[in-house]
Amino acid sequence: MTKKRQTTIDTIAGECIAVRMRMLNRVVTNIYDDALRPLGVKVSQMNILVAAGKMGTARPAEVCERLHLDVSTLSRNVERMKARGWLEVIPDEDGRAQPFRLTNEGRKLLEQAAPAWKKAQKRAKALLGDEIVDLLGQAVIRLREADAS
Question: Which element (helix H / strand E) includes 46?
């Protein structure tokens, strides 16, 4: 292997932001999923439930935009959560959109999940440190500002 090719490989291996973010994402997601497992919910599903709770009537395109999800991921998760009674589809003039909302069961689940979520939140903060958590918050603000423009 040429020296230039090895330098390129070393540079990408040592500096790639995407690799670092994906690794952090997997580790942090596992912390939350482990804590929430006894309730039968994953943190990715919990985020959708929270979005639906905040929005009242959740329109799929808007949820996808807010959570940066692709439509197939959202629809797969919504189907699973409808089957568990956590979400319900609301009739709409546009039959294609299929807006949904949190059910009473979904609200109960979120209340039950709160202590496990807090425990996972504490573990994730301890792992990352306050400075990184603050920087993540700032990065999300920048992302939202970029989306708005």
Answer: helix 43-55
In this structure, how many other beta carbons lie within 10 angstroms of the beta carbon of residue 100?
25
Contacts of 102 (CB under 8 A, 6+ apart): 49, 52, 53, 86, 87, 110
56-106 pLDDT, tens digit per residue, is: 999 999 999 999 999 999 999 999 999 999 999 998 776 677 899 999 999
List the CATH code of the domain at 3-148: 1.10.10.10
Helix, strand, coil fractions of the chain, as percent rounded to 5? 75, 5, 20
Residue 136 burial (CB count, 10 A): 14
The domains of the chain are located at 3-148
| Distance of alpha carbon 30 from alpha carbon 37, whole angstroms | 10
pTM of the model: 0.87
Distance CA 113, CA 47 (A): 12
